[in-house]
Amino acid sequence: MGADQVSLRVAGLWICLALFLLRVIAQIEVLLVRPDWLPPMEAWYSGLLPYPVLLPLQIVLLMAMSIVAMRETRLVLTNHRQPQRWHRAVRYFGYAYFAAMVLRLVVQAWRGPEDLLAAGAIPVVFHWVLALFVVLLGRREGSPLTAQDAMEAAARMHRETLHAQHERPLEPARPIAMDRARRSAGRSLPR
What's the CA gap between 99 and 93, in Å, rounded? Predict the structure, then answer.
């Protein structure tokens, strides 16, 4: 993968980072300037941590997300593959985190105000952004299938189909040819 090709997974990591950065900046703006177009400070955090403690934690989190996004970008641009052992666990953690935040919003809305902002929608939405970051981090980077690769695979599938029809005319040839083409291509082809 060259510098001119962008991985959607890595782009998603950077988008999540940018959204979380905007959230931190907006919360600081609400604290210092109190603009009318942004919700009040109470809507921006649950109050579990006092804001003077929460802000440094958010900054550390932004720094860690930046390091991870830069590392993943470098790995994609250099076409370097990392061992995939931990990806599934990270991805499932991200799914569980997302589900826990859905449950949190439902419980807060059920127990409290009718207004979702007052029920804690802003923190939950940005927890979803963090959960998406974790899920994207846990996804594997597939090697891009170029147009030439696709044409070669299609030609192989066609040849294999003709060969399979000639060898076993009563059996369905396409699944056999697809499996042979997948094995010969050495990468996953669309099913």
Answer: 10
